[in-house]
């Protein structure tokens, strides 16, 4: 089952989308918004599934689905918590700045509470940021949960996963060290994230295994491949573990979004991954590329994002069909920002 | 204008409440939930104000308002960001654990992103926590904002404040050092917070000045006064500054809750405040009391909260009438937790 929220109002309008992303049909009669469906999932899910099935067979009035008409599946959410499940990525970034990584990072998930009051749409521009802030993308996998009781087991947490999406966790790298030093976590360094046009139920994902999404996460910058790391590889903590971590001391409300953190694969020798041009899996954010450059050349070679840059994040199935639709965002210029 | 959300569904039912908290009238006809009113404030506010005025004069059918029927005004929210505006509190806590406090803390607000997916009601039990986690209350003032554009000035931020509440920011003290060391901020150490039964518009608050709420924040533990610090005193950063800080790199969606951090007054000599029994203003959390004990006696004397303890947080006007209603929460026992 594939669901999307078409633009309209603060929470969008819930639609079911065909598997090939070509068609949609409004699901208003079942639930007006995705959050409303998640709030009442036991009732809504069977109806949405049946409706999606009928759409698949052309049995309901349908319209062409255009990814640029979609909001993030939850245009705003009650919770967005982002893990750092690809510990390889964390280890690399620390190594480059000469900071030691505690051994516990391999066994105890890192997770931060993100802002969820208004996400960017998957084709919305990334608002202009001061270039000194070090604007970066982070390509991730994310899941939406139902209600999760406090102290849920990993298996219960896995069972609570309702939908899977891709994410661009926009980050302001130059603001991160200062915020980490303050000890209260990220705030200004994490502006609004964007999610893929379509959210997909785990059972419809061929690559879904043990709370991990196997498959190459394709990341492009200005039309050139930047990364194609396999999201199912080197994910130290699966989503079951991440959700259980989040729910250790409190229940999680339906519609909670949990992120994987930047997807990252090691190189074949266990060291940093190589660029795609060199036959490697590349990188899912600029910080990791800059880290590898720093380790190899002594200094980063690649600039952070600037106005006009275009970021694209997508995952395809075996037949090269887009699974979630593409996040494709241009960095806004100063003028665009002012006119909003 | 005073608003509340009576229990019912995930978002409660919006009502207007009389100034003396004795009466309410359902505001469903204007907006079904407080979030819906905030989403469409320009349209809803004048209607809610007129309705509240009519209620005040007994001109509409009204019912007795019982604080224990109320949810937190926003039973769940799209954003909860908590500052540490009483820098005195931060300085004390650091001093007790021998950690230096950067000078910048006096000029650059500390703020963390909190979980907002399901708050506790003002009379709900605090879910059982492992006693080793160091359960604590934190009595705070909090505001609910409308939409705030990115880069808003302090004045624009002040103008965006819609409602003011009290807050019990429940904290698990023993989990904090570990989470701070990980660098990603609080997550497991900050379970669900609770807010006062009633939210009040700033113009209805006699003590509202320069984005600060003047007046004694009364905190009781098991019926004994713990704190009565003046929330308008020693608040290094007013709410205008806190909101502008939050909005520096991203807009804030309507219904964003911003907290003051634990209210804390210095002693008359500029040092730590004294207990109420010694004629001081006391403390708004146990950690600060334990800190003072550590500084004076070498070790804390007071235990953190345990099952059965009752916490009460309230603020009164000059005539000793409750302004926001009381947060009054009992710490649940293990059995109660299991039966939920």
Key traits:
homodimer; 340 residues; alpha+beta; six-stranded mixed sheet; five-stranded antiparallel sheet; 21% helix
Your description of this structure?
- The structure is a homodimer of 340-residue chains.
- Chain A is α+β, with helices and mostly antiparallel strands.
- In chain A, 21% of the residues lie in helices and 23% in strands.
- The first copy, chain A, has eight helices and 19 strands.
- The first copy, chain A, has helices at 34-39, 41-56, 87-96, 154-159, 176-182, 239-246, 286-297, 334-339, and strands at 2-6, 13-17, 23-26, 63-64, 79-83, 111-114, 135-136, 139-145, 161-168, 171-172, 194-195, 199-200, 208-209, 212-213, 216-221, 224-230, 256-259, 310-315, 327-330.
- Chain A has a six-stranded mixed sheet. A five-stranded antiparallel sheet of chain A has the order 4-3-2-1-12.
- In chain A, helix 3 packs across helix 7.
- Chain A is globular.
- The first copy, chain A, starts with a strand and ends with a helix.
- The model of chain A has no long low-confidence stretch (mean pLDDT 94).
- At the A-B interface, strand 6 and helix 5 of A face strand 6 and helix 5 of B.
Order of strands in the sheet with the most strands of chain A?
Answer: 6-5-17-8-9-11
**Portion of residues in helices of chain A?**
10-25%
The SSE string of chain A, one letter per element, is: EEEHHEEHEEEHEEHEEEEEEHEHEEH
Subunit arrangement of the protein: homodimer
Number of strands of chain A: 19
Global mean pLDDT of chain A: 94
Give a short account of the largest sheet of chain A: 6 strands, mixed
* Approximate shape of chain A: globular
* Structural class determined from secondary elements of chain A: alpha+beta
């Amino acid at each position: 089952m594939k669901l999307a929220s078409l633009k309209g109002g603060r929470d969008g309008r819930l639609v079911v989308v065909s598997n090939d992303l070509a068609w949609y049909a409004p699901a208003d009669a079942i639930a007006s918004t995705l959050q409303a469906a998640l709030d009442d999932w036991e009732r809504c899910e069977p109806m949405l599934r049946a409706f999606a099935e009928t759409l698949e067979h052309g049995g309901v009035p349908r319209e062409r689905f255009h990814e640029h008409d979609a909001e993030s599946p939850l245009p705003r959410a009650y919770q967005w918590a982002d893990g750092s499940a690809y510990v390889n990525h964390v280890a690399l970034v620390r190594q480059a700045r000469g900071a030691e990584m505690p051994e516990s990072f391999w066994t105890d998930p890192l997770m931060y509470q993100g802002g969820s009051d208004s996400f960017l749409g998957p084709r919305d521009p990334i608002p202009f940021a001061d270039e000194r802030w070090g604007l970066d993308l982070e390509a991730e996998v994310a899941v939406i949960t139902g209600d999760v009781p406090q102290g849920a087991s990993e298996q219960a947490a896995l069972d609570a996963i309702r939908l899977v999406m891709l994410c661009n966790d926009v980050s302001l790298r130059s603001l991160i060290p200062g915020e980490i030093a303050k000890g209260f976590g990220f705030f200004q360094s994490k502006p609004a994230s964007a999610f893929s046009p379509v959210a997909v139920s785990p059972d419809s994902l061929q690559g879904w295994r043990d709370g991990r999404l196997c498959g190459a996460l394709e990341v492009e910058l200005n039309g050139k491949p930047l990364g194609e790391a396999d999201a199912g590889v080197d994910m130290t903590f699966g989503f079951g573990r991440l959700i259980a971590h989040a729910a250790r001391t409190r229940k999680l409300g339906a519609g909670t979004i949990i992120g994987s953190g930047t997807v990252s694969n090691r190189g074949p020798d266990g060291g940093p991954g190589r660029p795609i041009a060199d036959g490697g899996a590349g990188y899912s954010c600029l910080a990791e590329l800059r880290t590898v450059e720093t380790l190899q050349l002594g200094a980063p070679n690649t600039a952070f994002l600037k106005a006009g840059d275009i970021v694209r994040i997508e995952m395809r199935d075996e037949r090269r069909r887009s699974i979630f639709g593409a996040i494709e965002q241009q960095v806004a210029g100063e003028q665009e920002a002012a006119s909003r």
